[in-house]
């Protein structure tokens, strides 16, 4: 059993060695017992966690609390600062749809949103009386965890379909609210992904059901007033490596049913006006081919990497026969210009793309082919599109922000090109963008690749190598890290930190090839890129070696584990949030919810010995060494279905048992949440405050041999 020892020392879990031979290699695991045999039940009800495992996790939390106790005042200050930058009664700009304007807002002091609407001033009611359709604060009252999944009003505006997760396990229950009475109908659809798409006549909706292994595999149509057991199956994905998903075209004419992994996709259409409509396949799955679909008139406009279009192109196809043989290039492929997404409004194709690491929006007149761009002249910034509800409109909404400049929401007149500022993010405690410097610089990888690094620091900071640095990274699944405005890191920056984002390989920050150079056999490039970014920041005087705190979560937490093994002396500390660190054991286990879908990203170590040996070479848990490690804070979520709680628990145990010095190593598990941590907008500040207090302490000298911080100010 676990020996909690004393409050002055970390818990020591029992060693129960398990061994197996895979591809001729003996794998040993002293802490496999921390994975509960009833883990599926624990996802649904965390109270079912076996007593011995629960005792160990709670002992780890107590040890973390003991080490971080001297920073409690600092954590309170951080929470107060971060909360002071949040507009408590914030509201998003309303989006028009028919007779109403729909939006969400927060009440002062509220943790969760209010889903609202009011009459459209140009459609009758000038008073604009607000209706709160869903009060999520009230729904969350008395619950340890509450997360709103989706809220979609029906096309006739009479009903609201909404979903919520009350455990953190991402199992969402869908309910239907009558907007005239404010009461929910008897319909209750359990174990869903949380999304729903309404039929055109508002009599039914489509949703995705999760199977017993937590995989989204079945797409069903629910008719209002009928039991869930009678729901009509529209599609079932039988390949465990692909997940089902739903969406709809901007025209709202078609439901889109997609089945995909990280490199292959397949899409079918269902006419939402046909009560008995069946899926119509556009193009059968072909390994490595990806595509997404929009509708315009009698055509489909398809974003795809077909025919070697590595950075994607847009093709047009007749709605009557959209098979690949009829695909005709509309926006041809251009290497280095990655098309991220596309939407159709009446007469126009809008695409979001990235070139040289910077995003832009391109508006194309479908008939004439003329194009105009929306871009900004800054070294680093973020840009996004909010498509809204309407199709026949001359207004496009977009959001712009930089690392120093709060988000600005604009309505763009597609006919005139005029931009109208709709909202500027407010920072109630005050914020002067001119007090900060935003830079985009480049590190050189060991193979010569140029790695973009976005950074933020105060304008009055002395860049002589003395500043601490928080270096953030991810580098997986093709996800690009946006250089947009975040209020929370300002608490570090205002304390003299340099805040940096390393746009390493494994993301698509420099195109699809940048992603391919950081996946499967190329995965180690992500780790060495991150280390190169840290070394460059030190060499250029932004910080120094041993003053850098590294941060990453989920697959970025795997990055943290890898760089801790490879270059521990570079870092003052490492924050690994819900870290995917037990990579080899997880990807060898087909019973886990995400494993088969992960093989295209990491390789299949079961059937491919080369993939096995590649993963074995970097899997953080399997490469813990007898060396000194910097202080490490790992976090987990007990109900997390993506990175299961035992991954950080096992990693922390092996680190402590193997390391020869350094540390301390801490683990904090949220017993009431999952992958994303606390769901409330203020509750989540506590987790950030813990991480930032750790970063400030680690960069300020760390902890002495008695576990006392050398500096926590």
Automatic annotation (TrEMBL):
All copies of domain Peptidase S9A N-terminal, residue ranges: 10-424
InterPro entries for the chain: AB_hydrolase_fold, Pept_S9_AS, Pept_S9A_N, Peptidase_S9_cat, Peptidase_S9A, Serine_Peptidase_S9A
Family: Belongs to the peptidase S9A family.
Protein name: S9 family peptidase
Gene3D superfamilies linked to this entry: alpha/beta hydrolase, Prolyl oligopeptidase, N-terminal domain
Record keywords: Hydrolase, Protease, Serine protease
Residue ranges of domain Peptidase S9 prolyl oligopeptidase catalytic in the record: 484-699
Source species: Bosea eneae
Superkingdom classification of source: Bacteria
């Amino acid at each position: 059993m676990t020996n909690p020892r004393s409050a002055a020392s970390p818990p020591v879990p029992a060693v129960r060695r398990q061994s197996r031979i895979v591809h001729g290699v003996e794998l040993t695991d002293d802490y496999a017992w921390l994975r509960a045999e009833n883990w599926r039940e624990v996802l649904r009800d965390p109270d079912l966690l076996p007593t011995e495992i629960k005792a160990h996790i709670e002992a780890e939390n107590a040890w973390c609390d003991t080490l971080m106790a001297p920073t409690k005042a600092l954590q309170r200050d951080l929470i107060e600062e971060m909360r002071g930058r949040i507009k408590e009664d914030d509201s998003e700009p309303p989006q028009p749809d028919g007779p109403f304007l729909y939006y969400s807002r927060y009440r002062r002091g509220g943790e969760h949103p209010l889903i609202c609407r009011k009459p459209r001033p140009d459609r009758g009611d000038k008073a604009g009386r607000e209706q709160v359709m869903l009060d999520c604060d009230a729904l969350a009252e008395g619950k340890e965890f509450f997360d709103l999944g989706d809220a979609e009003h029906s096309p006739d505006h009479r009903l609201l379909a909404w979903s919520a997760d009350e455990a953190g396990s991402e199992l969402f229950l869908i309910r239907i609210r009558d907007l005239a009475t404010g009461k929910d109908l008897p319909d209750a659809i359990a174990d869903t992904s949380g999304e729903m798409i309404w039929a055109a006549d508002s009599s039914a909706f489509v949703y995705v059901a999760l199977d017993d292994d937590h995989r989204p595999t079945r797409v069903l149509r629910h008719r209002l007033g009928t039991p869930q057991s009678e729901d009509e199956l529209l599609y079932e994905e039988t390949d465990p490596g692909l997940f089902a998903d739903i969406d709809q075209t901007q025209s709202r004419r078609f439901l889109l049913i997609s089945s995909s992994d990280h490199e292959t996709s397949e899409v079918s259409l269902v006419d939402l006006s046909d009560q008995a409509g069946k899926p119509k396949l556009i193009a059968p799955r072909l390994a490595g081919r990806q595509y997404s679909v929009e509708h315009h008139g009698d055509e489909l406009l398809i974003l795809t990497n077909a025919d070697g279009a590595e950075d994607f192109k847009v093709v047009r196809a007749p709605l009557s026969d959209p098979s690949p043989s009829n695909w005709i290039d509309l926006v041809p492929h251009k290497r280095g210009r990655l098309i991220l997404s596309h939407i159709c409004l009446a007469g126009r194709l809008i695409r979001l793309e990235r070139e040289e690491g910077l995003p832009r929006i391109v508006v194309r007149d479908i008939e004439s082919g003329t194009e105009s761009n929306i871009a900004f002249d800054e070294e680093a910034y973020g840009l996004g599109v909010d498509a809204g509800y309407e199709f026949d409109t001359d207004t496009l909404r977009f959001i712009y922000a930089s690392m120093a400049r709060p988000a600005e929401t604009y309505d763009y007149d597609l006919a005139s090109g005029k931009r109208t500022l709709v909202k500027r993010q407010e920072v109630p405690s005050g914020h002067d963008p001119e007090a900060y410097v935003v830079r985009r610089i480049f590190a050189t990888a060991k193979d010569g690749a140029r790695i973009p690094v976005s950074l933020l620091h105060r304008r009055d900071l002395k860049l002589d190598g003395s500043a601490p640095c928080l270096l953030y990274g991810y580098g997986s699944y093709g996800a690009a890290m946006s250089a947009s405005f975040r209020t929370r890191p300002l608490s570090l920056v205002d304390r003299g930190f340099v805040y940096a984002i390393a746009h390493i390989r494994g993301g698509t920050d420099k195109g699809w090839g940048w992603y391919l150079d950081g996946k499967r056999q190329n995965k180690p490039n992500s780790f060495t890129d991150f280390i190169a970014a840290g070394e460059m920041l030190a060499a250029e005087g932004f910080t120094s070696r041993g003053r850098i705190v590294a941060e990453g979560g989920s697959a970025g937490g795997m990055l943290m584990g890898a760089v801790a093994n490879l270059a521990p002396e570079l870092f003052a500390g490492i924050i690994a949030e819900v870290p995917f660190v037990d990579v080899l054991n997880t990807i060898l286990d087909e019973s886990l919810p995400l494993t088969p879908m992960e093989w295209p990203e990491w390789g299949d170590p079961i059937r491919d010995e080369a993939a096995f040996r590649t993963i074995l070479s970097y899997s953080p848990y399997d490469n813990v060494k007898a060396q000194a490690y910097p202080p490490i804070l790992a976090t987990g979520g007990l109900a997390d279905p993506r990175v299961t709680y035992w991954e950080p628990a096992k990693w922390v145990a092996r680190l402590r048992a193997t390391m020869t010095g350094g540390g301390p190593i801490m683990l904090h598990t949220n017993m009431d949440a999952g992958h994303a941590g606390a769901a409330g907008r203020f509750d989540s500040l506590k987790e950030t405050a813990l991480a930032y207090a750790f970063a400030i302490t680690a960069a300020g000298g760390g902890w002495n041999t008695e576990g006392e911080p050398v500096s926590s100010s």
